[in-house]
Design a protein that fits this description.
Blueprint: E1 4-12, E2 15-22, E3 30-39, H1 44-49, E4 65-70, E5 82-84, H2 95-98, H3 111-115, E6 127-131, H4 144-147, H5 155-164, E7 171-175, H6 179-190, E8 194-198, H7 202-210, E9 215-217, H8 224-230, E10 238-243, H9 248-257, E11 258-266, H10 278-283, E12 288-291, H11 300-309, H12 311-317, E13 318-323, H13 327-335, E14 341-345
Parallel strand pairs: 7-8, 7-10, 8-9, 10-11, 11-12, 13-14
Antiparallel strand pairs: 1-2, 3-4, 3-6, 3-14, 4-5
Length: 348
């Protein structure tokens, strides 16, 4: 397919704009997808920083839904398929890729070198390339917008709760009710668990309640651990905690508020050191600590079950919708902390 497309770049500190770029071309088993829904994630951080000496930041976004419109050869998807774009460069052959855990692939493909395109995979664009095995198809009964929550909207905490085996017998603490934390509430309620949320931002507190949180506590309170224990069965603490804040205080709260033999899941990115004392925190308490980036591709049909059952909650999870032409305003809202998932329409 010849021609140009619109794509978002970060051109200066707190400045995003649309530019024209060539439409990428499919190659081998990489198909060309016409984007229909582009969810926003943490790209506001690059917007706040600006590009520095690099001049532009063109590779924005890693989520999206669209329609396959061109293939280079017969492959695992067909023209007309509606698909979720799950990633870019995993090799597809290593032990991790074969197990569905492609994010841990040690043999990442240089997508630009492989395709011969300058930047083929950023999602803030009208078209994007994707390897066929990372383009799971969307059933007819699920909308593009709901399907778009199958990646960062629901994915990290879905994976955490799969690994932790959360069920209706659990009381789950969610620290941080940003977009990922809101997805955690949806995942936990789908599994029948009781949910306690630790959050301090008023907008997010109200959204957590609308999504079904059973209780919300202020993590700044000096007795917040005692409050959480009082809200848990037998007043022993939660059976599972999921950190979606990515700050040390929240991570530490997860450890302190979880009962002996409980599970603590870390899904929010953080590079700060977390103080843990092995004996009282782990050995004597018997905690299981879980680091979870996302979920196995083999569980895609399971996350579709969550999406089917959570329609009204997903409509709340998507708090704002913007045409991509207003991406500057969308990034301002994303940086405000008063939002859930924001989605862009790349054609408006």
């Amino acid at each position: 397919m010849e021609g140009s497309m619109k794509k978002v770049v970060i051109s200066a500190v707190r400045q995003a704009e649309l530019v024209e770029m060539p439409i990428p071309r499919p190659k081998a088993n990489w198909a060309l997808v016409r984007m229909t829904v582009v969810p926003m994630c943490t790209e506001y951080k690059a917007w706040l920083r600006g590009p520095g000496d690099s001049g532009l930041i063109p590779a924005l976004g890693h989520e999206g839904v669209g329609e396959v419109i061109e293939v280079a050869q017969p492959c695992g998807v067909e023209i007309g398929d509606r698909v979720v774009l799950m990633g870019a460069g995993p090799c597809g052959r290593c032990v991790y890729c074969r197990a569905g855990d492609f994010l841990h692939c040690p043999n990442q493909t240089d997508a630009a070198a492989f395709t011969g395109e300058h930047e083929p995979t950023g999602a803030y664009a009208q078209y994007r390339l994707g390897a066929d095995w990372l383009l799971p198809t969307i059933p007819d009964d699920i909308s593009d917008e709901h399907a778009a929550m199958a990646w960062c909207g629901l994915g990290p905490t879905f994976g955490a709760m799969q690994t932790a085996r959360v069920d209706a017998f659990d009381t789950v603490l969610v620290t941080g009710a940003g977009p990922v934390g809101q997805g955690a509430i949806i995942n936990a309620k789908f599994r029948g668990a009781r949910v306690i949320v630790a959050e301090l931002e008023p907008w997010r507190i109200e959204r957590a309640k609308l999504l079904g949180a059973d209780a919300v506590v202020d993590p700044r309170d000096g007795d917040v651990v005692q409050q959480i224990r009082a809200l848990s069965p037998e007043h022993l603490g939660v059976t599972c905690a999921v950190d979606c804040a990515g700050v040390v205080a929240a991570q530490r709260l997860c450890i302190d508020a979880t009962r002996p033999k409980g599970r603590v899941c870390f899904v929010a990115e953080s590079n700060e050191p977390l103080p843990i004392t092995v004996s009282p925190d782990l050995i004597r308490k018997g905690l299981t600590l879980i680091g979870q980036w996302h979920y196995s591709l083999n569980d895609f049909n399971r996350i579709l079950q969550v999406i089917r059952a959570s329609g009204e909650r997903l409509d709340l999870l998507v708090s704002h919708r913007f045409p991509m032409s207003r991406v500057q305003k969308a990034l301002e809202v994303s940086a405000s902390r008063r939002c859930g998932k924001i989605v862009l329409d790349p054609w408006a």
